[in-house]
Each structure stands twice: as structure tokens, then as C-alpha cells.
Amino acid sequence: MSDTRELLPVLLSEKSRKIKGSIYNRIQVDFTYYSNRIEGNRLTHDQTRYIYEMHTIDGTAPVNDVFEVANHFKCFDYILDTVSEPITEDYKTAPPYAQKRRYGRRHRLRCYRRL
Q1: Which among 28, 50, 75, 103 would be 20 to 30 A from 97, CA to CA?
Q2: pTM score, two decimals?
Q3: Spatial contact of 99 and 111, defined as CB atoms under 8 Å apart
């Protein structure tokens, strides 16, 4: 008898129950940090974690970097919630993916504050 568990049900369960310190939280922060770092984001791992946990930033940071991190969290959740759907053009461009392209800087700041 195998002692393995599927990751997807664990992530969905932890996400819905909002378990702090869970594998879901760890993946959200680590995946967001490293993915955005590859793209040139200048936030530190601690800043990324702080944005995830507190929905704000401590100190100063480039607005676009903060927005990209916040959007990455939403995108990861969007993928988890729709993982069984087929990947179509609409799926790839649906919010929150399209959000950055549609709104100006002022609106992006308001969107982030509402997280």
C-alpha cells in the first residue's frame, strides 16, 4: 500500500481552509518569488512573503514589482481553481492575466489595495 498523496487536492483544501504555514502558502510565496525574479522583479523573498501574508508592503518597492507579485498570487489561484478546464485562448487571456494590460497605473494601485 502506497503512502503518497495527490498534491492538487491538498493545495485546494489548504487554500479553501486558509491554513497558515501550509504547503499551499509555501508554494505561493516561493513560486511567485522565483518566477518573478527570473523576469527581473527586484523584491526580496521576505517582501514577497510579506505581500502574501499582509497584503501590503513594508518599506518602499517599485509599484510594478508589487503589482506583478500580487497578480501572480491571483493567477496561481486561478489556475488551481480551473485546473480541470481545457486550455483555450479565452482561458489564457482571462482575468487576472489580462488585468495588467487593461488598466493604467492609478487603477493598478487601487486594485492591489483591495486584495
Answers
A1: 50
A2: 0.74
A3: yes
Round to whole Å and give the CA distance between 35 and 79: 15
Which CA distances in Å does 53 have to 2, 7, 74? 34, 22, 13
Taking residue 86's Cβ as centre, other Cβ atoms within 10 Å add up to 7
C-alpha to C-alpha distance for 70 and 13, rounded to whole angstroms: 21
- Among candidate residues 6, 15, 14, 48, the one with its CA nearest the CA of residue 31: 48
Strands, DSSP E only, in 1-115?
Answer: none
Residues with Cβ < 8 Å from 28, sequence gap 6 or more?
52, 73, 76
pLDDT band of residue 101 (cuts 50, 70, 90) is very low
State the Cα–Cα distance between residues 68 and 15, nearest whole angstrom.
20
4-50 tens-digit pLDDT: 679 999 999 999 999 889 999 999 999 999 999 999 999 999 999 99
For residue 10, give the amino acid letter: V
- Measured CA to CA, the distance from residue 35 to residue 31 in angstroms comes to 6
